[in-house]
Amino acid sequence: HAPRPEGGSRLPVFPSHVRFTMPSKGEIAAHNKEDDCWVIIGDEAFDCTKFLADHPGGKKAIMLYAGKDCTEEFDMLHDRKVIKKYGIKQGTVTNMGKVS
């Protein structure tokens, strides 16, 4: 077990591959290419780059929303549970104002 800090509880240990980022909508907007494709679903950012070729609806369906919020469109076609199995979440989005 990990040592306990003086007077505190044991600190959680997270795998090194877990990312705890809080990208802004502006930062996500820059990820709008096939080799760097992120989308927003709800208040979460997802890196879809490696998933593009495997998307059952084709990569074009995702690329239409690269760097953007696709919550409404995603929710019309998918259950939110489906996204979790791909492990592509990058973090919770800060500054949830509209990106123009």
UniProtKB/TrEMBL annotation:
Transmembrane annotation, as ranges: none
Keyword terms: Heme, Iron, Metal-binding
UniProt KW Heme keyword: yes
GO CC aspect terms: membrane
GO terms for MF: heme binding; metal ion binding
Domain Cytochrome b5 heme-binding: 20-100
Family membership noted in the UniProt record: Belongs to the cytochrome b5 family.
Name this polypeptide is given: Cytochrome b5 heme-binding domain-containing protein
Organism whose genome encodes this protein: Oxyrrhis marina
Taxon lineage: Eukaryota, Sar, Alveolata, Dinophyceae, Oxyrrhinales
